[in-house]
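dude i think i finally got it to work??
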Amino acid sequence: MTNTSLETDVLVAGSGGTGLAAAYAAAEKGLKVTVIEKLDQIGGNTRISSGFFAINSKEQQAAGMHMSTQEAIDRLTNYNHYLGNGALISHIVNSAADTLEWLEDMGMEIKLNPTANTTQYAHRGDDYKGGSYHMYQHKDQGYKNIQKTLENAGVTFKFNTTLQDLKSAEGKITGATAVDAEGNTFDINAKATVIATGGYGGDKEAVAKKMRTPNLRTLGVPSMGEGFKAMIKNGATDLDSTALIHAAQLAKSTVTQTTSDSHLAGFSHSALTQLLLTPMLWVNLSGKRFANEETVYDTVEWANAAWSASGKYFFVVDQATLDTFTAEKNPLEVSQAGPGADTEPGDFTELANAAVEGQTAFKGNTLDELAENAGMDADTLNATVAKYNDAVAAKNDPEFSKSAQSLAFSVENGPYYAFISQVAYLGTVGGVRVDENLDVLDANFKPIPGLFTGGANAGGYYEGHSYPAYEGLASGFSWTSGRIAGTSAANYVTQYAVAH
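look at this
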């Protein structure tokens, strides 16, 4: 094992969208840029994202859409109840369309997803929610193109190399230490450092503590919080970091893991997802209804509602409902929010009984038996079902205002089934306090000289727990904030050189 010293103008830790944008922005200024990446390829958690939020882009203009950045800023600010960083939100939204075009020039092909084609049915008719999704095309090739673009610009990549800590001297961040997969260490001297390590979504214990529940499902995010923790250690403040909760999933079998690969990005290859993604009766772990189930048509609202019930809930159906789905006579639209549903036909009774065997669902010939098997309170469940059946019969839901159309399935013909559903998260969002130029701020709201961040380590774009349901928002923020952070880092280096 060796200990190597490296010199660079700008050090970027992480090569997801944030890091790649930061590195290229700094390289465009003629600076020497070094990127360290813990994985063996670029892309990070951004690789699982599908698109980029931008307003008044050339794609939208070509489609005849008249989009206003002022409207978008007002919507995001209001959604955040003015708890976000208004200057940062404005800077991001006003820079996103140009950054998207810049990303295309780097080698990523983009195609605008029309509002009418949104998989989030609650977004139909709203171009800002459904028509802002600029979807990545041929992502694998796109990332290859981007890496080549950066390397041609002089960016040096060091893969399988993990950030350990930041270095400081005289109140300034002066680089970082890192270690590679073989245990070789690196002492990296840098005039400016951009932390783009992607939050701490891989740290299950930290996420459970932050979200105050152990019931959330992770999708195997690699980010363990190395950069986030290093910034906190060196004077930054955790402003609003939180899990990026994203829809809900059927539970994984506790009996066999042979189908675990089918849960990539939250998707389960089972027709039972049609039940998951239809607004059935939802109850919490005690058996009490907790939300208007039509939130299943919006990924964020669905996840938020389920999180309010501890992140784990049951959807309850009876035999008649299973028969209806087996006969392919479901009168309701099956949501495609989140990973979407598997719409292939199936024998739903057979699938439901297999789920019971796999301990991802519970069965009872009576509601009392179902409650006992699922660990619910029998009196609570009976009262919930009775009230819900009354709402279905009357086509009126005084408790949660579910629409008459969605009040389609009563629960009155045993046997009864309760399927486990769990909120999933794609990583974390939010992070440390920054200004609108992505300088990291200390506890006194002053920039920490030489330290910049963006993406899933930067706070102020969201209100602290939820994130606005605008498609591509987190991914667009990653690229755009990374570009701004890299530009700010380059300006800092240039100013430092002039001053010395």
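The radius of gyration is 24 Å.
im so relieved honestly
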